[in-house]
Specification:
Elements: E1 3-7, H1 13-24, H2 31-39, E2 44-51, E3 59-66, E4 75-83, H3 92-107, E5 111-114, H4 121-129
Parallel strand pairs: 4-5
Antiparallel strand pairs: 1-2, 2-3, 3-4
Length: about 140
C-alpha cells in the first residue's frame, strides 16, 4: 500500500490522539493542547505515516534532538514509536525510522538512541534489524523531579 511519510502538522492532532490512546492508554492531552504542541514543537519532531488513499494515520514516531555544551554534536532520541496493528510488517515502521535517520543526518547527530521494553521481543528484533544494539547503560527514572 502506498504510504506518505512526513512531519506531523496540527491537523493530524485527532489521529495522533487516536493512535497514542491505542499505544499508551487514555490520553492525558486535549485536542487543543495536542494541536498547540504540534504547532510549536521545540526540540521534538513528530513524523507520521499516512496511506496515500485515506485520512487515517498508520503510525507515528516522536524524537527529541538534544544538544549539550559537553559534546560537539547533538544526539537524538526516539521517545515514542507506534504502528497501528493493521499496518505492521508492511514497511511503515521502516519508513518512519527513515525519517528519523534523515533528520539525524541533517542535524549532524552523533547518536540515535531509544528505549524499549525488556520483554518486547518484536520491537527489539525490529530495532536490531535497523542496526540498534543494547548500549549497556542502565535506564533509571524518578517520579519526583
Amino acid at each position: 500500500m502506498p504510504m506518505d511519510f512526513r512531519p506531523a502538522t496540527p491537523s493530524d492532532a485527532s489521529e495522533l490522539l487516536r493512535l497514542n490512546a491505542a499505544f499508551n492508554g487514555p490520553p492525558s492531552q486535549t485536542l487543543a493542547a495536542t494541536r498547540e504542541a504540534l504547532a510549536h514543537p521545540g526540540a521534538e519532531r513528530v513524523f507520521v505515516a499516512q496511506p496515500c488513499q485515506g485520512d487515517r494515520l498508520a503510525g507515528f514516531c516522536c524524537c527529541q534532538l538534544k544538544r549539550s555544551f559537553c559534546y560537539p554534536e547533538p544526539s537524538c532520541e526516539v521517545t515514542e514509536f507506534y504502528v497501528d496493528p493493521p499496518y505492521r510488517r508492511q514497511g511503515v515502521g521502516r519508513g518512519l525510522m527513515a525519517q528519523v535517520f534523515r533528520l539525524c543526518q541533517e542535524e549532524g547527530a552523533a547518536e540515535l538512541s531509544l528505549l524499549t521494553g525488556g520483554d518486547n521481543q518484536a520491537a527489539q528484533a525490529f530495532y536490531s534489524s535497523l542496526g540498534f544494539r543494547p548500549s549497556g547503560e542502565l535506564h533509571m527514572s524518578s517520579e519526583q523531579p
